[in-house]
Amino acid sequence: MKRAKIFTALVLALLGLAGIAAAQRAKMIQIKGSDTLVNLVQILAETYMEKNPGAALAVLGGGSSTGIAGLTNGTCEIANHSREWKQKEIDLAWEKGVKPRFFVVAVDGVSIIVNEKNPLDELKMSDVGALYRGDIKNWKAVGGPSQAVSLYGRQSNSGTYVFMQEHVLGMKNYSTDMKEMNGNAQIIEGVIQDAGGIGYVGVGYLFDESGNVRKGIRVLKISNGGAAFSPLDKAAVDSGDYPVSRPLYQATKGKPSAAAAEFIQFEISDEGQKIVEREGFFPISAAHRAANEKNLR
Amino acid sequence: MRKVIGLLMLLMVSLMSLTAQTTTPPPQTFSATVYFDYRHFLASDGPVTLKPAAATSAYKNSAFLFRRAYFTYENKINDDLKFRFRLDADNTANVTGVTLTGDPITGVTTSTDGKLRPFMKHLFLEYANFLVPKMVLNVGMIETLTFKPAEDRWGYRSVAKTLVDGYRDVTKKDILATSADIGVTLKYSFTKFFRVAAGLYNGSHYSKEETDQFKEIELQAQITPVAGFSIVGYMDHERKLPVASLPDETGPAQSIYKIDAFFERIKDLVLGVEWFSFKNDLYQTAGEKYDVGGWSAFGRYTIEPDKLALFARYDDYTPNSLDRGLDMGLAIAGIDWAPYNKSWRLQPNIWFYSYKDGTRYNASATRDSDVMFNLTFFLSF
Known about the structure:
The complex is a heterodimer. By secondary structure, chain A is of the alpha/beta class. Helix content of chain A is 43%, strand content 23%. Chain A folds into 2 domains: 2-107 and 248-296, D-Maltodextrin-Binding Protein, domain 2 (3-Layer(aba) Sandwich); 108-245, Periplasmic binding protein-like II (D-Maltodextrin-Binding Protein, domain 2), CATH 3.40.190.10. In chain A, the strands form 2 sheets. In chain A, strands 1, 2, 3, 4, 6, 7, 8, 9 and 12 form a 9-stranded mixed sheet that branches. Chain A has a 3-stranded mixed sheet with strand order 5-10-11. Chain B has 3 helices and 18 strands. Chain B has helices at 2-21, 148-154, 167-171, and strands at residues 28-41, 62-76, 81-90, 98-99, 109-110, 117-128, 135-143, 180-191, 194-201, 216-226, 229-239, 253-263, 269-285, 288-304, 308-318, 328-341, 344-355, 369-380. The longest helix of chain B has 20 residues, at 2-21. The model of chain B is unreliable at 10-25, 54-58 and 93-111 (pLDDT under 50).
């Protein structure tokens, strides 16, 4: 009899907790992932919540890998990622029954920056790769001053780290001398303080509060065999002439829920894309928009 | 003394200069996971199988029970190389263990002093994209392939080991399986539909040195024909030294055959089944070999990620295929609740034991069932 009472009490407690949690959960959309996207999506979410008082979104960083893992293991509803999924992530998602749908919400030019005292104005993609692999250790080798190169980059859970490795380093390892920083802002601070510094950051992080490129850094033009283009040149990024540009993604676990779909719809709307531009990123193309609309259905 | 101080200062200066050179250390992590229970035997003073026949008074109706502590250091050397060092501590680790008797397998020890002692669990190097992309090599004191698929899906090692892992704890019948051993594993993913793994180990497990010339091999294949549904086949094999009590067995061997199936197609729900059979030439009753086996079905449902989940499981044990009176079942159900932060969880759970014949496990047993309540405290940081 005593045992039956205890068991009944436990079952009731369990049901009560489940009910409370289910009610809580219905309100909150968890978004997790790319540090490149975190500020932008936070601002988009705040604007969206202001316009939709019933909506609740929580936006966390942690890097693209964290967001992708979160979507796969169910700890977030939307994953922010600044790179494409790796094969092992696709395999794991398949195993876990996750068939992701992807949405491009902004376009980023990964900017290569140096200290403002460095007179260089442009670099070849191949030289950027050689610098980050550690093959070139002095600026003199690429037309700069005779000064040791000091590398600043992201930690390996960052999508930008992986993007650079795949597109600029030729899938080779980074130099072990590279200082692995926690975020874009820390890379910029490092380069400002270091005359021999070079860093890579999302274009949205280049500007100060008044919309000007931050003091203390120089944004390099990059060439890939032909003319060099700046990541600050919107037309060059849109056309793909600037070689280190990339789409910034969100992923959902299959077809997004109605609440998540509404938020994504807002992000890719004209109003959302104005915020994207205001924050220093580039708006999505018509092709991206069409693909997004298809994935929302 | 001066020399010592001088050396210490030199060491400090060296360390400081090293720190100055590498402002950001390589990606290294230290982490710890601890779990312990408040255990209460709802029926009496403890399940039949936990209670030594001759010392029932040693068990109290309830107690705090330390279960496990892991301390892990990982160093991601580069994108392909990773190193892990893990210390483990539990209340069965001991230095003065006694050998179980009445069993042809010797060398099995059990706790005597109850003190909590750390021991080395993992010490290995992982090499991703070894030789070809998507091939992973592990070398050292490594995780074996035996438990991991079910353990990952069950997800509540803090509450209970999976069927094969916990078999000896529950039934007292040793199936000579382990979670870690010295050796090498090679894993390869052909496609998202199919992956394989193979391992070669001492076979003497993480707590012992190699005791014979034989090595254990493990083979595993996983197919995932549709998203969220996987079938994993596993087998291991090792020859053993003959024992004097069974002179006819001149080249004895042992093997585990195991099949797991996992269903993860429904949002927030994970379902799994596991079946295994252990064959050991040295396991005989009156000259006839018997198998040890069992099956398990489990599920967990996440109500709110990192906050609240429910889990349940049923295990069926057949410790001797020639003596079904030893058969038993174990049902476990509970809640995983993180009231404040996912690093600190409360996992209240109930265990229902059912014995075909309780007296086969404890001569003084007066019933064929038991109920045990645990409030498991789970901490990770």
